[in-house]
Each structure stands twice: as structure tokens, then as C-alpha cells.
Amino acid sequence: MYTLILCLFIACLLPYLTKLPVAVAMKNQPGGYNNNHPRMQQAALTGFGARAYAAHQNSFESLIIFSAAILTALATNHLGTSIQGLAVFYIVSRCVYHLLYLMDWATLRSTIWSLGLLASLSIIWMCLP
Predict the structure, then answer these.
(1) Tens-of-pLDDT digits for all 129 residues of the chain?
(2) Which has the closest alpha carbon to 66: 110, 123, 120, 124?
């Protein structure tokens, strides 16, 4: 149970940690970080900044299904090593995904994204009676 809750905690932190490269990209824009209209500035980012912002947004999107998977595992008392391994794999895949997004390695990034999604779906599937 500890591993699953820890992975859920880390997954909840990832969207906020992935904001750091976005903030750096925004700070490097003419006029610096625009805290009055940050969403407008984020929408105007290009290159590295745009990729950082997209990865940041995807962290929130991915969190939804992973959270559902972990909460399903906890609620159904499916706490085995396979499910724990999939949860850890998901966290690792999300970190790798983010780095690949920043490096602009689109094909490998999409592959890693698919594997992370598959891990979340597999956790839910394994909880079926």
C-alpha cells in the first residue's frame, strides 16, 4: 500500500515540478516572466518553451487516469507486487516522457507515453474480479 500511495503522491507533484522549465522559458522571454498574464505568455511560447508547456499540461491530463487506477487498486485491495511495479513504471515513464518532450524526441516520447497509459489501464484491468 505504501508504494501505491507514494507513487500517487509523486504523480500529484509532477505537474507542479514540470512547471519549472515553463517558468524558465517564460523568464527568458522579452520582459521576463509575466505574472499578470501568464497564460497569455505561455500560449505565445515557441520551441523549448512550447514543448515544456505541452509536457506540463500533459502531466495534469495523465494524472487523471493514474489517480483512478491507484484509487481503484486501493479500494479493491489489489496491492500486489505486479500493481506496485506498474505504478513505479508509470512514474518512471512520466519522468522519461517529460525529458524526451523537452529534448524534442517526438516518436520515442509518444512510445513512452503509450507505455505509461498502458500501465495505468493495466492496473485497472488487474482490479477486475
Answers:
(1) 999 999 999 999 999 999 999 999 999 998 899 999 999 999 999 999 999 999 999 999 999 999 999 999 999 999 999 999 999 999 999 999 999 999 999 999 999 999 999 999 999 999 998
(2) 120
Q: With beta carbons less than 8 A apart as the criterion, state whether 91 and 120 touch.
A: no
